[in-house]
Amino acid sequence: MATFGDIGLAAGVNILTALIFLIAFAILRLQPFNDRVYFPKWYLKGLRSSPTHSGAFVSKFVNLDWRAYIRFLNWVPDALKMPESELIDHAGLDSAVYLRIYLLGLKIFVPVALLAWAILVPVNWTNNTLAISQATDKLEYSDIDKLSISNIPHGSKRFWTHIVMAYAFTFWTCYTLRKEYEAVAAMRLHFLASERRRPDQFTVLVKNVPPDNDESVTESVEHFFLVNHPDHYLTHQKSFEFMLEAVRCDFEMFSLCLSYFYRVLSFEIPVWVSGSCHVLYLSGSFMVVINANKLAKLVKEKKSKENWLDYYQLKYSRNQSQRPMTKTGFLGLCGDKVDAIDYQTAEIERLSKEIAEERERVKTDPKCIMPAAFVSFKTRWGAAVCAQTQQSRNPTVWLTEWASEPRDVYWDNLAIPYVSLTIRRLIVSVAFFFLTFFFMIPITAVQSLANIEGIEKRAPFLRPITEAPFIKSFIQGVLPGIALKIFLIVLPTILMMMSKVEGFLAISTLERRSAMRYYTFNFVNVFLVSVIAGTAFEQLNTFIHQSPSDIPITIGVAIPMKATFFITYVMVDGWAGVAGEILRLKPLIFFHLKNFFLVKTEKDREAAMDPGSIGFNTGEPQIQLYFLLGLVYAVVTPVFLPFILVFFGLAYVVFRHQIINVYNQEYESAAAFWPDVHGRIIYALIFSQLVLMGLMSTKGAVQAPPLLIALMVLTFFFHRFCKGRYEPAFVKYPLQEAMMKDTLERAREPNLNLKGYLQYAYVHPVFKDDEDDEDEDFNGKSDDSVIVPTKRQSRRNTPAPSKISGASSPSLPDVVLENSSSLK
Amino acid sequence: MATFGDIGLAAGVNILTALIFLIAFAILRLQPFNDRVYFPKWYLKGLRSSPTHSGAFVSKFVNLDWRAYIRFLNWVPDALKMPESELIDHAGLDSAVYLRIYLLGLKIFVPVALLAWAILVPVNWTNNTLAISQATDKLEYSDIDKLSISNIPHGSKRFWTHIVMAYAFTFWTCYTLRKEYEAVAAMRLHFLASERRRPDQFTVLVKNVPPDNDESVTESVEHFFLVNHPDHYLTHQKSFEFMLEAVRCDFEMFSLCLSYFYRVLSFEIPVWVSGSCHVLYLSGSFMVVINANKLAKLVKEKKSKENWLDYYQLKYSRNQSQRPMTKTGFLGLCGDKVDAIDYQTAEIERLSKEIAEERERVKTDPKCIMPAAFVSFKTRWGAAVCAQTQQSRNPTVWLTEWASEPRDVYWDNLAIPYVSLTIRRLIVSVAFFFLTFFFMIPITAVQSLANIEGIEKRAPFLRPITEAPFIKSFIQGVLPGIALKIFLIVLPTILMMMSKVEGFLAISTLERRSAMRYYTFNFVNVFLVSVIAGTAFEQLNTFIHQSPSDIPITIGVAIPMKATFFITYVMVDGWAGVAGEILRLKPLIFFHLKNFFLVKTEKDREAAMDPGSIGFNTGEPQIQLYFLLGLVYAVVTPVFLPFILVFFGLAYVVFRHQIINVYNQEYESAAAFWPDVHGRIIYALIFSQLVLMGLMSTKGAVQAPPLLIALMVLTFFFHRFCKGRYEPAFVKYPLQEAMMKDTLERAREPNLNLKGYLQYAYVHPVFKDDEDDEDEDFNGKSDDSVIVPTKRQSRRNTPAPSKISGASSPSLPDVVLENSSSLK
């Protein structure tokens, strides 16, 4: 049992680590050559460009302004300054609400900690049970235990305090949760309501279009919706002026024309082709991969050639005297020497043609046309109605659901038939069960292969090497651990793959599902395995053979004994880990490596930035583990709570900074994940009550079990209530809202060409040629970049100067919005 | 352990009982004076009237035609003859599908029984485990055990047969279930599609209309739907010609005018008044009861007076010489003597006025107007859309759902606010838990009060009586049993009350919910309590303290030992009970008692018939218990299956007869209960696999647990699949269907006055004056009575004469469709 001294030492070490990380960050971020690592978000928004065009050569890389270093902790107030509404504009609602999870942690645990320290700690402290048992049974105990429930004598009246506190904590948590759910639901609805026009507001994804012998998918979709939604279905437009206007005059005109004709002929219902087909899904997906791969490969190759062309043209523009030359062979190292610009141009043309042909092939190949479509409606009301109702008698065909944002669509899963979906769910559920409880088996197998004897047996010629003392100790000491470590690193990827196999249609859903699984995995393999020794499988075995009333006792009794372990865990994983997050060591190294070896053009540099995203599928389960720990220990070992508080506070600041300056979200789901967050906290709450019941029933508190069971029932019904009251805001789209927006829009823009607007909204990525342009058209980037600087401007003129973006890049006095000329 | 002889004896006794019931029925039903007891359905449909107008006096009461008695079992082929489509026309889809549950039992268990007897019985029989253990351990065993799994030696390879059979039975059951679900879903959709125009197709129930300070509920509903469903909301009609046409010229013109004005003024949105109000629900419901009671009392009083008036007018018409006189005082026995007809007419007028005043009072009292409305739409499409979508931001207001049939609405629950609903659910769940597991406690308490000593202590003056030997033995022997019996009789009522408290809005939902609870109660207190001795509470206690892996073992081991008990149970409850059902002893006695003492007019006689209904809330759980028993014993003791088969066969015939001739369904839910039926059979299937696993793991069949767990997982996912594939047909209304019907209707009746049609559809019962007329208008009775005889007619002319209705009433040669003249 650890004493206060031990804990203090551990805390010191971890605080020191965290501080080192923070100082390193504070210094590194001031260096101009790291600017793209620590402020990529601003680059992506076009509000900041490489700061290397003026001043001395060295100042391009190192910040020599000593004053900047004095204010090295300025990022903290900067991160906190941006108001939430501005944050939503800047980074999206998902990110803003994600931050609220940390804030929720503070809201729940600050009063809980205060109350626990004011009441529970004195109640626990003023006993001498542990002292007596030390005297009689020679039991060791630590100061921390003296503050915990362990110090209360058997059957004491003082347990009433703990029960009352359990009630108080539960009520407070529920109250906060409810407030928060309400707030987030309101934010979501406000966000959706105040949003600009977006294609997904008008669009419904129709899956499982039934095959028809007489009609193509396209025709069948059109007929169905013309018949069943006659007033709302956006009919096709015949004007050819419009067509001419829409055709873009780039070197892919031919392909575009074809694809445009295709769309016009197919009555404006974009039937998307992802190279995967209905028939093939049951017999394997070879053709799928080949198809998509070929097209994707061609597109990628073309991009690379375009990049080279840019490079050579730039080179030529600098030095007009000499046309750049290249060799046609492998990596430009062998073969005939030709004019580089001409060569690349010719290559690009060839590839464009090939891509166009491949596209046509895919489009005309009936096997490749998926029985799914994005159907657009004239009004939001029409789309809301279609998305929320059943279309056909047979509930497995003509399935409709809201189309996710174009960025959020997961194209590969659009064509899974209904029966296959059920089978996939079954397989994935079984696979996840085995993954959770039996993952140690293959790892143990690998470890047994990777030991010295195994290697020597299989590869006797390696014996001289493996017998070397250093290598031997390395293999014996590190290798077994590495197998486990590698597994844990790839675990999120495995879980994500599982979600993909399960057949969800949006990236946001995939991430939510993976988060759920990751949390379950962590709960079993981190929490339970730490509390009760033994692997998950051994525990499962124990639990099956234990009575249901013994399980909470087994866990409950072990809980107070593991307090110090989890305190250390929080400090290492929470404090130092979060401080490490802000340093972004991996992206920093990778950026500089890429910059040094690969970057040729400005586009490459953009690509090398890798801002990353929040990573909901791994980040949220981690926070949830802290909620679980906090709730479990709130009554049992209140001394635990301050450590959790430090985590939530630090993480809030760090992630707020990262969200403002670094992360670039791939999609915007408008906080669709909140019901999951809420549900898991409720789960943690009920679990904490259960183990408290188990613990107290062994301590002779006879009044505890019935009272705590009642509390569990109440908590459960609170959950039911919240689910009914707030969850619909996250899964449905009220008609009132839709009608309101429709009416407003009709009043404001009576002549809106909605058809033109929705024309290219849902295009499969491989069909997007000028991807960047379209992206900006549809996800609102171009608008944001107008809104945000305006606001900044106005803030700069206010009496209290808050240079949020400026202060975040303190040593860059004249950031000029200039683009390509800065290439070295 | 029972031998074949014991079982044979029990079977003999029960077959005899059943036969006596059937013969008694066969004789009683031929007597004309029982005709209304055994054929009320035909009377209600107006296809049959009292057969007492011709022939000798005695033949009015007793059937003297000896030939009729020869064909006394003719009702069986008669019951089976009517084809299903005709049955649906005749008795509704609910009844037809209810019969399919019995048929499903036959479909599942006939092949299972054949297979089990062909394979399992020989496999079990050709062992001598029991003989050996009898020789060594002196264990008793019966012949039945020799046919059961108990006769297989420990760890034998023969258990593979049982596992394979478990798989085969599961697959067969699932296959049949799927087929049946498909068929019932198709029947439901066909029924809904081919149905005539019905008000509920156009109507949506809107609950929780938010209170508004500036607008009444009526106005607020109108504004909301005008704004949010502008194209579909049925707007109000201003023509006063229409109004005049609609007003009926009965002696309640005044009241009707007022109520009509009220409706016109309130823009055609029928806002219903049930005397219960939003505000009061939280603080109790005193006013509710008072209000509804007063109005209902007045209506009832008026009805009684009208009945007397009929009686006197009839009397006068027979004997014109003398005006009938009556006394104004108590029961017409004292007070002034007045002209009876004039007096009753005056009384009726006075009451009509009072009723009208009371109605106006209720309507104008803002406290009595509930925040709920039935909103009608122009098209089915509009109603389907509104019912399936969320209307407002706040998911607890403007809740919409399909309006049930007017007959099916449970008016009292229309105004429960959302929070109150959650609390009600909580309270009812907790109450049901205690009812199930602790119901023995109050009964034991009552029993202890009702014993001799208790009575003598409390009422010493009764001692002389209670000391009498007969009374003493009566009290000691019967009274404790009576307490339990009374509880079991009132149990369905208690469960129904629970469902009502829970706040469901349709009688069909109430019944479904009660059925679910009744099944749970039976499962715990009949099945489990019989398998493992001890009360439910003791078992709960055992299970809590047992490991999850031991519970199936405990049950599984006890299962084969209880086979004979359940065989007896099936014979008593199933065979004799079903045969008793057809005799209708209670309605028979009550009808004759009422007929003798109370009946004055033809209306009274109608009321005395009491045809009853299927009683889904008690009947279906009983069938489910047989499914459970059949599935559990299919592998363990195959000898059990024939007994179940006899039950299903007998019950099918009996209930088909009853449905054709007796029961009068209160509502038509279009087989909405099927998902529950399906779900409970799946539950029984998984439970049977679980106990089989428990049993086999004790018999040393190590291969069984993993294989049976896999089977359980497969069964569960089969359920998931069916839920997704077929359940939507029972809870949603596809837009394609709605659009189809709308289009057809528009083509057929372009000038339909839908407004007039929907005018009086949803009227609270106390506001219906000429209830019978309106009922017929809206629930299609009047139409059915046209359709059915036509079909009969055509059948009579076909070469194979099938006189279904005629044969069911064999001794009534000239049933004349004449009404009131037959009054004695």
UniProtKB/TrEMBL annotation, chains A, B:
Domain CSC1/OSCA1-like 7TM region: 424-696
Principal subcellular localization: membrane
Keywords: Calcium, Ion channel, Ion transport, Membrane, Transmembrane, Transmembrane helix, Transport
Residue span(s) of domain CSC1/OSCA1-like N-terminal transmembrane: 9-180
Cytoplasm found in the keyword field: no
Membrane topology note: Multi-pass membrane protein
Pfam family, one: RSN1_7TM
Annotated transmembrane regions: 6-28, 101-120, 426-450, 470-497, 518-537, 625-655, 704-722
Location of region: Disordered: 771-824
Acetylation listed as a keyword: no
All residue ranges annotated as the CSC1/OSCA1-like cytosolic domain in the record: 286-413
Location in the cell: Membrane
Name of protein: Calcium permeable stress-gated cation channel 1
Biased composition (Polar residues): 796-811
Species whose genome carries this gene: Rehmannia glutinosa (Chinese foxglove)
Family: Belongs to the CSC1 (TC 1.A.17) family.
PANTHER family assigned: PROBABLE MEMBRANE PROTEIN DUF221-RELATED, RE44586P
